[in-house]
Description:
132 residues, 3% helix, eight-stranded antiparallel β-sheet
Amino acid sequence: MATLFAASESSIMVDGEAIEGVRAIEYRYQQQRSNVYALGSTERVGMVSGGQTVEGRLRVASTSGKLNGLSGPFQVIATLRHTAADNKTKTMTVTFDECYLTDKSFGIETNGHGEAVYSFSAVRLREEISEA
């Protein structure tokens, strides 16, 4: 059965500081792959793994002073939680190491509020799941 993490129970930290007003976090991990074929055959016999890229985006209501002030490498830790009906809590901690801000955008709609999107790249991504 799938685990549905709740936004109201989850948190995002950047360099150990909680970020207020986070509306969403998105990330993408990609790894280059190349097929290996047997001599004289068209069937794949293996696969070689290459470089990897990690990209993420934080969507924040209005703006974030902490994210606006970033200039060098930083770390993002997303703690995603789900509490089941039997009060057991499942937690997935997603850690992005050696991040750099790559893009920032801001938008505001009529009858709405401002929203900033901070895009970043990371050297590595670690996902750890625990249950209590």
